[in-house]
Amino acid sequence: MKKILHIVLILISLSISTQGFSQKIRVACIGNSITAGYGLQNPEQEAYPAVLGKLLDSKFPNTFEVRNFGVSARTLLFKGDMPWVNEPAFKDVLNYMPQYIFIKLGTNDTKPHNWQHKDDFRMDLQTLIAMIQDSDTLRPQIILCAPIPVYPNNWGIRDEILVNEIIPIIQSVAKDNNLRFIDLHTNMANNLYLDDNVHPNIEGSKVIAQKIFDSVFYNSEMVKSLKNNGK
Question: Which residues contact 171 (CB under 8 A, 6 or more apart)?
Answer without folding.
Answer: 144, 146, 181
